[in-house]
Design goal:
heterodimer; A: mainly beta; three-stranded antiparallel beta sheet; two-stranded antiparallel sheet; 24% strand; flat; B: mainly alpha; Heme Oxygenase, Chain A; 2 domains; 15 helices; globular
């Protein structure tokens, strides 16, 4: 892309292969256990592997679980 | 902060000339560094003129032509050393996958793992003092890169930096979180307080970030370094938090690492995918330099970890 051209539309959600879901903006996210948490950053990483100890947020644990269990 | 103590002929000469506001730095340009530590403390102080400066040195020296000459010559030596150490060529294939794999496949010693299970409180505090040289100006070296980037990469990097700088709230600024943790841990939290105590490896880590950040030519290396730093932060930060908690350190210090578990799980994805990913798409020629930055980040941390773990084992 040349700087003078319009960029493709900025996604609100990015699904990272084998990793979390990146979520742009202010949202309330409900964890598997039913508790809710509000985003606090410009972009948040929501756990998709189910193994994070910081639910609903990603804590990088997907990097140490077997490939077959990755989202 | 006052100018650091000299560690050899070169730094002794340069720092004395800086303190006395000498009109000429010719004697410094004729002096060779005694050893790497002498070179790196000199280079660190020259870089510091561009960050916060020294109370006992004139601000006018920031762009002094002779100091620029000296800095350039020390940087050339250091950059060549970093390139000589990097014997790996950039991996092929999908960029994000290659970058995560390059870091995952790198097998280095882990200070966080040692703090987690084995370290004494004294050793943990020693590590915090060493880390403070960078953490008290966390993210600043990367900020130099912003104006040198294409628009897509610039916007992506700002999204990450905004979070590093507390999203507009000074109480959430990462460097500020670390300073509060230092205070509560009974350590000095002033910027650069422990510079005279840190070994060569810490100076090299800090100088590499400034070198990459301050040269537009090295923007690829700067962002590759950022990505490797973020990729190796989330899980180690969890270990640091648990280790510091085991040792009974204050909640503020543990909180700094807790914050990095979550923040860097986001930042590693942004650094690889939206930041380096967009840069390599727009400037494919930078791919090798991005991986040079990745390797340098990992290698410099290995050198520091090896040094500290060897000292602690002795």
């Amino acid at each position: 892309m040349i700087d003078g051209d319009a960029a493709p539309q900025q996604p609100d959600i990015i699904l990272c292969p084998g990793g979390p879901m990146l979520l742009r903006g202010d949202h309330v996210v409900q964890s598997p256990d039913g508790t809710s948490a509000r985003t606090t950053r410009p972009v948040s990483a929501v756990c998709r592997c189910g193994k994070s100890a910081s639910q609903p947020w990603c804590d990088g644990t997907h990097k140490v679980i077997p490939r077959k269990d990755l989202p | 902060m006052l100018i650091p103590k000299g560690r050899g002929a070169l730094s002794d000469t340069v720092f004395e000339l800086m303190r006395t506001d000498a009109s000429s730095f010719a004697p410094a340009l004729r002096t060779l560094a005694d050893h790497d530590e002498d070179l790196h403390i000199t280079l660190w102080a020259l870089y510091e003129l561009h960050y916060r400066g020294f109370e006992d040195v004139s601000d006018d020296l920031e762009w002094h032509p002779e100091l620029m000459d000296l800095r350039r010559s020390l940087e050339n030596t250091f950059e060549q050393t970093l390139r000589d150490r990097c014997d790996e060529s950039a991996p092929e294939g999908d960029f994000a996958e290659a970058m995560f794999a390059a870091v995952a496949d790198h097998d280095g010693p882990s200070l966080a793992a040692f703090i987690h299970r084995e370290a004494t409180a004294e050793q943990a505090l020693e590590l915090l003092r060493m880390r403070s040289i960078y953490h008290l100006k966390e993210s600043d070296p990367t900020t130099w890169v912003i104006p040198r980037l294409p628009n897509t990469t610039k916007a992506a990097l700002m999204e990450l930096q905004f979070d590093e700088y507390g999203c507009g709230d000074p109480n959430r600024l990462h460097a500020g979180l670390f300073a509060r943790g230092m205070n509560r841990s009974g350590l000095r939290s002033e910027y650069g307080a422990y510079i005279d105590d840190v070994p060569l490896e810490v100076l090299e880590q800090n100088n590499a970030m400034s070198l990459f950040g301050l040269h537009r030519r090295l923007r690829g290396a700067a962002l590759g370094h950022l990505a490797a730093f973020e990729i190796t932060s989330s899980i180690p930060s969890r270990k640091m938090a648990q280790g510091l908690s085991r040792l009974g350190l204050p909640a503020e210090m543990i909180g700094y690492y807790d914050e990095h578990v979550e923040a860097d799980a986001v930042h590693e994805q942004l650094a690889v995918r939206t930041i380096c990913g967009s840069l390599v798409e727009e400037e494919p020629g930078l791919r090798d330099d991005i991986f040079f930055g990745v390797f340098s980040c990992l290698d410099l941390e290995d050198r520091f970890a090896n040094r500290l773990l060897a000292e602690w084992a002795a």
